[in-house]
Design brief:
Layout (H helix, E strand, L loop, with lengths): L1 E7 L3 H11 L4 H9 L6 H19 L6 E10 L3 E7 L3 E7 L2 E9 L2
Antiparallel strand pairs: 1-5, 2-5, 3-4
Helix pairs in contact: 2-3
Length: 109
Amino acid sequence: MTATLKYALMSSKKLGLVASMVKWKSVLEARRFLTFLPKKAWKTLLKLINSATANAENNLDLKKEDLYIDTINVGKGPKIKRVRAVGRWRMHGYEHHRAYVSVKLWVKK
């Protein structure tokens, strides 16, 4: 009952902030909460929670009404280095941040 996303296209800070809000909630409540959240990371986490729910339903024959979010681990991924042209033929470097996210569900009986 887990799902993992590697190389998420945003920083681990943005994902970790939203992940801490959703932890220990039921899957249905977390879906409702994320759809109205004005943060960038809501769509990524919603897809990951839906994937973990589908894994539990298809592989273990569990109902989504009984599933709760146990842990959401967010870690730093590799950075992609880029350059941007600035004045006088110079270049300034910057980095695109990536993140790893994993969701683990548990069943309330």
